[in-house]
Task: structure prediction
Amino acid sequence: MIRLYVSQELAEDAQFAVSPEQAHYLTNVMRLSVGDELLLFNGRDGEWRSRVAQVGKRACLLEPLIRTQAQAIGLDLDLIVALVKRARLETIVEKAAELGARRVRLAITERTNAERTNVERLTAIATEAAEQTGRLDVPEIVPPEKLDRMIADWPADRPLMFCDEAGDAAPALAALAGRTQGPWAVLIGPEGGFSPRERALIRSAAGAVPVSLGPRILRADTAAIAALALWQAALGDWRGT
Result:
């Protein structure tokens, strides 16, 4: 069944029109008509089985029927990633949504090639991934910020899994063993890696947990996926049913 993220309130007997883009997707691409059912979520009210109540030339009216899942609070996991090439960054955002990150924070480092990105497009990618994976929220995409400022303001109560390509950190699963779940963050560097100064700065941050992702040098997108998977296996909701 089609799942769609909407911003409107979801409740019994509520009807609302979706955006023109969503109306086009539902009626022209997926060819839904009046009476057809779909699932809706908004990150606040859980998931609702709903139906198409009305279709117009450029409009589509939806009606929530019954809640199928109560809203749940997901993992408080941030992925911090240095800006990389557009295609790889889009892959990172998509996979971060699939792997349960609550936020993707974009960092500007000494070796970052670009300082700008299309946050709106990345949000759309995260939304589509959330729709497809069954999660009840959409990861927040935080606009780029300089890494130095981010680390200077780092909260001591959020451990930072620092994926250090220098090779002198403990293997990720060993470094995470015995740690508690709670709020966490995973930090991935740019294609050229962190500078020596940045490495020292990150390691000095309160709660920094340097880890190794193995003997091979990984591209940023591969490293992000591997790190999130390892964190999920050690501390995340992969351990549940």
